[in-house]
Amino acid sequence: MRVSLAHLQRITNDVATTSTLYKGILQRFPGNMSFAFSYGSGIFPQNDYSPPSSNMLDFVFVVRDPFAWHKRNLEMNKQDYSGLMRFAGAKRIKNLMQNYGAFVYYNTGIPLGGRVIKYGVISEDHLVQDLVKWDTLYIAGRLHKPVHIVQHDFEASPKLLEGLKANLIGALLTSLLILPESFSETELFHTIAGLSYSGDFRMTLGEDRNKVSNIVNSNLERFQQLYHPVLEGVCETSRQMRAPLRSFIYWDKEKRTIDQDKSPQVQHLHLQKLPFHLQTSLCRVFDIEARHVRDVEEILKSAARYPDLSDVIQQSVINIVKNTNKSQSLKGILSAGPWTSIKYSGNKLKKMFKSIFVTNR
């Protein structure tokens, strides 16, 4: 299942007009970023009533040495941090970042370049772990959807590039296990986009109720650019399989529909290729008595024959997401300070109520 660097970058070309803004923003921060990207409603449209320019611009900065990066950023941009975090210093910020929540530290509500930005900082090692194993599905989940790659150093970080590819493949295979025998491309993208929101308590209180649909419907072409090569890779694997698994998936590119074999043999094939933490989460859902990694393969064989496997997969994803999002949100209150957190949550609530009003109008 080959995913090229070119196709990962191609989805960013349509926002090239913002390159000057991005360059100005990155110059404000310490260097030594192995990867930086922007995501969300501040760059890509998600509805008709809130254009990207009116929303906060979200970034993630991937760094190799979090302590050194925060130490330098405290010197350059001390005002970005809450009073408590300025007092705590770079070492404690790094410890908070790496030992709690989703291993990412956010500064939010920063006026810059005529916009308001939020930026998260995560170590390269933790991001690669999340991309490959889905330890938290926090930043990996954001990378299931189109993003704008602002900067990268993939030549020096081949594991990061491979992790990005593995993350897309994992999202596709997980969605195939959730979806029925026949479905449309749009249904596939809705399923993929919804993975990282499964079990997120903010979807009940604080987020636009139509968020997943808005993301996909407003960015359908970007999802196609991102996942068509991945889907083609799965189809190529399918064509190369020996009987009885020959051609376990058929993609009608003209009709934009997909048919798949949901037999236990194929289900098991997909289950074996899922990110490891999702596999272990599935084992705990499917067999509460499972306690050891050695149980995984046997449980996956049994799960492949289970008629409600789709429900088990969805619950397994929910279990990963819900615990991480709660702990990350609590960490955000500490890192941003109570006033900034209340203000940020208030803006989220306003967007949620606006979405309810527009839907019911």
UniProtKB/TrEMBL annotation:
<protein>
    <recommendedName>
        <fullName>Phosphatidate cytidylyltransferase, mitochondrial</fullName>
        <ecNumber>2.7.7.41</ecNumber>
    </recommendedName>
</protein>
<keyword id="KW-0808">Transferase</keyword>
<comment type="similarity">
    <text>Belongs to the TAM41 family.</text>
</comment>
<keyword id="KW-0444">Lipid biosynthesis</keyword>
<comment type="function">
    <text>Catalyzes the conversion of phosphatidic acid (PA) to CDP-diacylglycerol (CDP-DAG), an essential intermediate in the synthesis of phosphatidylglycerol, cardiolipin and phosphatidylinositol.</text>
</comment>
<keyword id="KW-0496">Mitochondrion</keyword>
<dbReference type="Pfam" id="PF09139">
    <property type="entry name" value="Tam41_Mmp37"/>
</dbReference>
<keyword id="KW-0460">Magnesium</keyword>
<keyword id="KW-0472">Membrane</keyword>
<keyword id="KW-0594">Phospholipid biosynthesis</keyword>
<dbReference type="InterPro" id="IPR015222">
    <property type="entry name" value="Tam41"/>
</dbReference>
<keyword id="KW-0443">Lipid metabolism</keyword>
<keyword id="KW-0548">Nucleotidyltransferase</keyword>
<comment type="pathway">
    <text>Lipid metabolism.</text>
</comment>
<comment type="pathway">
    <text>Phospholipid metabolism; CDP-diacylglycerol biosynthesis; CDP-diacylglycerol from sn-glycerol 3-phosphate: step 3/3.</text>
</comment>
<keyword id="KW-0999">Mitochondrion inner membrane</keyword>
<keyword id="KW-1208">Phospholipid metabolism</keyword>
